[in-house]
Amino acid sequence: MKGIDIMEQYDVFLINPPSSNMKDKYEHLGLAYIAAFLRKYDIKTKIIDIPLYDLYPNDVIYEIKSDKPKLIGVSIPFQDSASEALEFVKSIREAGYKGHISIGGIYPTFSYDEILSVCPQIDTVVLGEGEITFLELARKILSEEDWKDTLGIAYRDGGTLRVNDKRHLIGDLDTMPYPERDTLPIVILKSGFASILTSRGCYGRCSFCSVGPFFSQFGQKYRQRSVENVMEEIEMLYKKYNVRNLFFNDAEFIGGKGKNYERAYKLAEELIKSGMDLHFSIQCRVNDVEQELFTMLKKAGLRRVFLGVESGSQTVLDRFKKDVSVEDNIKALKILNELELYISMGFIMFDPHINYKELSENISFINNAVKLVGKERLDYYPVSRLLPLAGTEVEREMKEAGKYKGNTLNYSYEFDDKTIGFIYNLSHSVYNLVGNLKSRFKGNSESNTKWMKR
Asked: Does residue 255 contact residue 203 with C-beta atoms inside 8 Å?
């Protein structure tokens, strides 16, 4: 007769894999949403966030061997950490795991063929939004049904790559359950803020961004939750978890002019009416920044803005398909500065086609931005280069021109101007060396936490 196991057994493990590049401690909302869908159907689900808890991968593998979940879902949120994630998957198999392993994320959605080739230990790749697809996959696997007809997956059947029909996006985001908050207590201890999503996608068409291409191939490019639905979740976080700092994780929080602008304004009004003592951070495009709206957002608790500036050269902005002007960039910085908001500026100093004039314009723009805002409230990475992320227009163009070297797990490219390439490599090396020395002797910068201080 078997003894009673007092340890809870899980049917599904959802894992955020090792990532040496992931220094900040965030909630993984993607896994949290999938967990909410699974638990809604009484599927026993455990979230394991390796970077958040600084776990040793071998300890997680030991837990997998002990618990023997029938299904493991591994998220690959960032392309630059994909190699580590795939090595982790391989080590799970090498440890003797016989169950089903599925991966998902923006990067796997675009590079499923390559991933399944280099990592045959993976059974399926979830394409697009994962909630409904992974739920359906889980229910079939747990009931030992044939899962191969599941919409929205790619897999290898012997030597043949199979790609099933696409699954459409969830039409009404308000119908979704709120994400599970298993990791929130430790996140608040380590980072001080909770994350929340009020929309999915982006209305922009930036050539270097994979967000738009990811969503648009499955349905509507940009969707938003209602103000009422968002407020309900915020109030729950405020009361149940004592959240006082929020990071709106939307790729595009405002959503452009018209009804989207009005929605952001209404949300600010509702936050003010609620009397909640909140500080929050958002991400948006420069053409979303308007004095009236952001004054209201500041009253509601806005303290930091991730601003997609990207360049101080008009020809580069046009090349990136930003659909804004340098003057728009300056105007946005001025408004945010007048409101004394912290600014994290997205900026791409180098791209493969950049010339001396454009580089000089970028440097001049950065210098003027620092003079305008000041170093205390402006955060940016001064030696960044364009990344040809999977699924982007930039990646496609590089490959067509023969400039893209390697594969999506380890790519490189050459600059049109070899001297500028040398300047980038030298400046990048020096900046990283100085940055490492500063962090070693002075500790990490407080720029990510200043906005939360009251």
From this structure: yes
Q: How far apart are CA 123 and CA 138, in angstroms?
A: 13
d(CA 118, CA 448): 37
In whole angstroms, give the CA distance from residue 309 to residue 287. 10
CA distance 295 to 277: 17
Token code pair at residue 65? 């061997």
Residue type, 199: S
Whether the per-residue pLDDT at 442 is higher than 80: the answer is no
* End-to-end Cα distance, the chain: 60
**Which residue do the tokens 């990475």 mark?**
381
The sign of the dihedral angle between the CA atoms of 189, 191, 194, 197 is: negative
Q: Within 10 A of 329 (CB to CB), how many other CB atoms are there?
A: 26
Q: What phi, psi does 322 have (nearest 5°)?
A: -75, -25
Tokens of 173: 């985001």
- 412: helix, coil or strand? strand
Looking at residues 166-192, what average pLDDT do you find? 97
* Each residue's pLDDT tens digit, 195-235: 999 999 999 999 999 999 999 999 999 999 999 999 999 99
Q: Outline where DSSP puts E strands in 11-159.
A: 12-16, 45-49, 71-75, 100-104, 124-126, 153-157
CB-count burial class (<10 Å; 0-12, 13-18, 19+) for 290 = middle
* Identity of the residue numbered 281: S
Please enumerate in sequence order all residues whose Cβ is within 8 A of that of 269, keeping only pairs 6 or more positions apart, or say none.
Answer: 296, 300
Please report the DSSP string for 324-386 in residue order.
Answer: --HHHHHHHHHHHHHTT-EEEEEE--B-TT--HHHHHHHHHHHHHHHHHH-TTTEE--TT-B-
Query: What pTM was estimated for this model as a whole?
Result: 0.94
Per-residue pLDDT averaged across 284-310, rounded? Answer: 98
CA gap 27, 34 in Å, rounded: 13
Which is it for strands 222-224 and 199-201: parallel, antiparallel or unpaired? antiparallel
How long a stretch of residues is the chain? Answer: 454
Q: Which two tokens stand for residue 265?
A: 């304004």
Question: How far is 327 from 311, CA to CA, in rounded Å?
Answer: 11
Rounded distance between C-alpha atoms, residue 164 and residue 150, angstroms: 7
Q: Tokens at residue 441, please?
A: 């002797």
Q: What is the mean pLDDT of residues 311-337?
A: 98
Would you put residue 46 in left (φ > 0), alpha (ψ -120 to 50) or beta?
Answer: beta
Q: Look at residues 139, 119, 115, 117 and name the one whose alpha carbon lies nearest to residue 127.
A: 115
pLDDT for position 23: 82
Alpha carbon 365 to its chain's center: 27
Sign of the CA dihedral running 116, 104, 202, 306: negative
